[in-house]
């Protein structure tokens, strides 16, 4: 075999793994269980490449309080499992917390989190959007998540106080001169 093809052959396993990860995420977004998680108030902040909103969740505050009441102090990086039940509006309500994955009870969803710096953390801490959209996304009161098998969760978007998805605005079309 010609040695000039070796870099290509070396890259193929990495590309395969990357594609499998993307396919898994796409499957979670398409068929995962939808749940809304209430947000704690935070301010949108500007970045050079656009705007973003730092996300803080009421759920993690509740998990932290549950852990403190049980005198349970996980180590940094430990995996936790939050068992949620959706109310009539699709909002996730914490039922229990564990450090070992177990089968959810009827009507429960399991959400995988990590313990970082003295608190439970969801996988996503910020939401990026186009520059100038900060005012629209400042109305967010919920984060919309899709939860897949084994508690893997992906942030799908943000929703307002009426639980309606906040859709990104369309960029105005460029005008020809």
How would you describe what is shown here?
- This protein is of the alpha+beta class and 177 residues long.
- It has one domain (31-159).
- The chain has helices spanning 6-31, 58-69, 134-137; strands at 33-40, 44-47, 50-54, 56-57, 79-86, 92-98, 108-116, 119-121, 126-129, 142-147, 153-159.
- The strands form three sheets. Strands 4-1-10-11 form a four-stranded antiparallel β-sheet. A four-stranded antiparallel β-sheet has the order 6-5-7-8, covered by helices on one side.
- The longest helix is centred in the first third of the chain and has 26 residues, at 6-31.
- Mean pLDDT is 81; it is low at 171-177.
Q: What's the gist of this structure?
A:
The chain has about 180 residues and is an alpha+beta fold. It has one domain (about 30-160). The chain contains three helices and eleven strands, in the order αββββαβββββαββ.
Features:
177 residues; alpha+beta; 4-stranded antiparallel β-sheet; 24% helix; 36% strand; disordered C terminus
Uncertain stretches of 5 or more adjacent residues: 171-177
As a percent range, the share of strand residues is 35-45%
Largest sheet: 4 strands, antiparallel
Radius of gyration from CA coordinates? 20 Å
Helix count equals 3
Class inferred from helices and paired strands: alpha+beta
Helices, strands, pairings?
Blueprint: H1 6-31, E1 33-40, E2 44-47, E3 50-54, E4 56-57, H2 58-69, E5 79-86, E6 92-98, E7 108-116, E8 119-121, E9 126-129, H3 134-137, E10 142-147, E11 153-159
Antiparallel strand pairs: 1-4, 1-10, 2-3, 3-9, 5-6, 5-7, 7-8, 10-11
